[in-house]
Amino acid sequence: MKVVVKAENLTKRYDSFTAVNSINFEINEGECFGFLGPNGAGKTTVMKMIYCASPITSGNLFVLGLDVEKKSREIKALIGVAPQENNLDPDFTVLKNLTVYARYFGIEKRVAEKRAMELLEFMQLEEKADVEIPELSGGMKRRLIIARALINDPKILILDEPTTGLDPQARHLIWDKIRELRKFGVTVILTTHYMDEAERLCDRLVIMDQGKIIVEGHPRDLIERHSSKSVLEIIDPSPGVESYLRDSGLIIEKGSDRIYVYADNPQQLLHELNEKFFLQHATIRASTLEDVFLKLTGRGLRD
Amino acid sequence: MSLLSNISRRSLMVWRRNKDVFFTTWKTNFLPPFFEPILYLVAMGLGFGILIGKVEYEGLFVEYAMFLAPGLVAISSMYSAFFECTYGSYVRMHYQKTFDAIIATPLSIEDVIAGEMLWGATKSFLNSTIVLGVVVIAGLAWFPGMLFVPFIGFLSGLMFASIAMIFTALVPNIDSFNYPFFLLITPMFLFSGTFFPLNVLPEWGQWMAEILPLTHSTRLIRDLSYNLFSWVDVISLLYIVLLTAITFVTAIALMRKRLIK
After folding, report:
1. How far is A28 from chain B (nearest CA, A)?
2. Residue B101: which of A14, A89, A152 has the nearest Cβ?
3. Using the beta-carbon criterion (under 8 Å), do B20 and A92 form an inter-chain contact?
4. Given an 8 Å threshold on Cβ–Cβ distance, is A104 in contact with B103?
5. Rounded mean pLDDT of chain B?
6. C-alpha Rg value of chain B to the nearest Å
7. CB distance A83–B20 less than 8 Å?
């Protein structure tokens, strides 16, 4: 498999603050690779270094075999970027946003217009071609940003939090489109806070915290490696439950109103608890990436 | 120097972006530069000019309206670029995030800033040429010197665009532009030989005025309008070229520092 992005001891420092601390990763051609992590983990900084908007402090970073420190124009010509912040051009209509953007890539006008219409259709925005940007909904703006990122037929598509703040319909549409793009062989790199999004889309992902990669792998493997098969949630537990669970040597975690028990055999445990205590409410569910994430990065707020 | 080598022909794409926006609303954009000089010429040239009579300039005695006219062309060149590359560029940079969007394409930040300043100079060229048109129709500038005035309008525009961009790179917020306008632009508007000949000032005042960039734009435009040329014009041209070169590079360096983190 061909490696399209390769980072070696990649580091980004702002004055005394280290945003990305000597990380290593490789992204393969055609895969969907996710960067997960709480706010301030360094995900967006990594994205910005990949698309050459932010210079690296030390280490090496190669995109499509090109060194970001020497070949930024060439790299930027080959990739598409959908940033976190809406930076569509409010001075132009939807269609003109795409054709003006195409011009920055040196794409000829006729080709640009044809491609722009195709992309609007692909993102289900063809009826909005002549609409002004402020009139679009949040979901439409996101779709247009993704369409814009595809204008140069990129080999790598970078999506920085593609569905943050969108309603479920808009999120599902964007997920479908990302899957479709992957079928065309586009490598997708995305950052997200949403574990369900990562679980659905990513072939491989890394979880970052405080500028470091703390774990890497396929979503299902990560769940198997770092969490139990199931989680038992005991809501409003009576006083003795916690110490009983601790004494039994189980892995537990305390929330404000509940205890999470990471158990491979939760039915039996629930039965056992029901005999000894009065449990108001308890549920058993399968472990998710969110459990892995919270276990590895903790439950404390980050900003 | 890597700053300059990072400027490519692609900076013209930024210029074209701004041009496209400008021409979608061209009717509203072209009216003020057309009507404003007419108002000034009528109120100050005709009305106020009656109180003054003729003005002496470099041995030439001219009507006040005639004295004022080249000043209006120079003022238009200054304000057009300065507004464009302070408020205009700041809005695109800070509120619209247009620069962020563009530097994710093959353009460099140096391309973006160079394109913005070229566009500022182009607006000076357009607006000062419109003012010149009014002045010529009113019979207040002479052939053939006036044919070269648009060139000075552009060059002086590039100088003011570069100075403006330095402020845009430094201000903490958009309200801070009040300072350069109040401390730099308004004094220039008044004391650059625009409304009265500089020789009425005391000697120290004349030297102070020579420091101001607009003095040199005004002198060149006036001398071209009157078909007067002397070695002083060469010095004024050199002043503009040199200051433009310095501020152009400085603006790009400071913008890079502000935007690339």
Report:
1. 22
2. A89
3. yes
4. no
5. 94
6. 19
7. no
Quick one: pLDDT at residue A22? 94
Check whether B3 has a pLDDT greater than 80. Answer: no
Calpha distance B158→B124 (Å, rounded): 8
Q: For residue B78, what are the contacts with CB-CB under 8 A and spacing of at least 6?
A: B124, B156, B160, B185, B188, B189, B213, B214, B217
pLDDT digits (tens, 9 = 90+) for B168-188: 999 999 999 999 999 999 999
Q: For residue B148, which of B241, B236, B224, B240 has the smallest C-alpha distance?
A: B224
Peptide bond into B144 cis (omega under 30): yes
pLDDT, average across residues A230-247: 82
What chain A holds in terms of domains, given with CATH numbers, is: 3-223 (3.40.50.300), 228-286 (3.30.70)
What average pLDDT score do residues B194-212 get? 94
Chain A contact set for B106 (CB, 8 A): 73-74, 76-77, 104-106
- Are the C-beta atoms of B155 and B241 separated by less than 8 Å? yes
Q: What is the pLDDT of residue A303?
A: 57
Q: Which two structure tokens, joined as six digits, stand for A275?
A: 């005999």
Name every residue whose Cβ is closer than 8 Å to that of residue A264 and which is 6 or more positions away in sequence.
A228, A229, A230
Chain B residues in contact with A90 by the CB 8 A cut-off are 96
Which amino acid type is present at position B69? A
Residue A37: is it exposed, middle or buried by C-beta count within 10 angstroms (0-12/13-18/19+)? buried
- Tokens coding A70: 């020497």
CA-based max dimension of chain A:
76
A120 residue type, one letter: L
> Among residues B12, B22, B21, B1, which one has the least CA distance to residue B107?
B12
**Residue B81 contacts residue B93 (beta carbons within 8 Å):** no
Q: What is the pLDDT of residue A276?
A: 79
Q: Which residues in chain A are closer than 8 Å to B103, comparing Cβ atoms?
A: 53
| Separation of alpha carbons B103 and B120, rounded Å | 20
B253 CB neighbour count, 10 Å cutoff: 16
Residues B9, B107: contact at Cβ < 8 Å? no
Residue pLDDT, tens place only, A109-140:
999 999 999 999 999 999 999 999 999 999 99
Residue A299: the pLDDT is: 64
Span A34-46, average pLDDT: 91
Q: Give the closest-approach CA distance of B73 to chain A in angstroms.
A: 29
Domain boundaries, chain B: 2-259
* Chain B interface disruption, residue of A89, A99, A150, most B CBs within 10 A: A89
